[in-house]
Amino acid sequence: MSTKVSDVIVPEIFNPYVVxxxxxxxxxxxxxxxxxxxxxxxxxxxxxxTVNMPYWNDLTGDDEVLSDSTALTPGKITAGQDQAVILxxxxxxxxxxLAGALAGDDPARAIGDLVAGYWARMMQKALISILxxxxxxxxxxxxxxxxxxxxxxxxxxxxxxxxxxTQKLGDAKSQLSGILMxxxxxxxxxxxxxxxxxxxxxxxxxxxxxxxxxxxVDDSCPVSSxxxxxxxxxxxxxxxxxxxxxxxxxxxxxxDSLLGEDYLINRRTYIxxxxxxxxxxxxxxxxxxxxxxxxxxxxxxxVYENKKIRIVKFVxxxx
Length: 319
Description:
Layout: H1 5-8, H2 11-25, H3 27-30, E1 34-36, H4 38-44, E2 50-56, E3 79-85, E4 87-94, H5 95-102, H6 107-134, E5 144-146, H7 159-166, E6 176-181, H8 183-191, E7 195-198, E8 207-210, E9 213-217, E10 223-224, E11 227-234, E12 238-242, E13 251-256, E14 261-274, E15 277-279, H9 291-294, E16 300-302, E17 311-317
Parallel strand pairs: 1-12, 5-17, 6-9
Antiparallel strand pairs: 2-3, 4-14, 6-11, 7-8, 8-9, 10-11, 11-17, 12-14, 13-14, 15-16
Helix pairs in contact: 2-6
């Protein structure tokens, strides 16, 4: 009798494995750009479409000279509110897609790694859509460095123009630690010997480094008519929460006996939120936004001051 998906998948074990393995496989998380936060895990488990996150604004006003005749003037602390959207996604696979995995010596782990790798790619794709929408909002113009309209070499990415891009955060630029760029951009920098490669001791793929910052290559980064977009991040710029709402079924197996088909259904409920840019839900048709809706600038509004949002959009040419 042949092995069925239901013979090797135990949903209660499989889903936590997939979630943890997805985070292990994600270059975004390994770079520190995206960080998982237990508080966001709790928020992502809510039944609401969005979750509110109040915060305290920094203290303002100049100090005063002490006097024996004049009292100090009391200041006040004010509050603001950030807002994150809960992403609800799912995918189903038939046995044919998993046939190779079922031939492995540990089919449950093999299938889990395939599913985890899939979700790591989907999370990165969602982040690109989020960044497209965030920077389509007029409120984020202060975090954009666009040299694509300059003449000749002044429009091309270089060490000098990259430093200018990081300067968008002023004295907070030292927090920038990672770069998300198109493979064509990475190739140009590599040809100029501007990218260093570090070989991890565990034997995994080499890690590219540019200007002291880890490079993540993704061809989903926007490119149009020779103009490329590169994103520069600080640690913990994006918060990740893995939710498990009440009565939510993250993993199921099913079988169509008449067709002899086995199915694996996997669902994710998660938050992927750029800290300090609120999701307004101004243009969302369903219970959870699509990637196209995440890419709509009408759905985003900056609530932190610019340099506290540890993301810069760098628009440039490569030749």
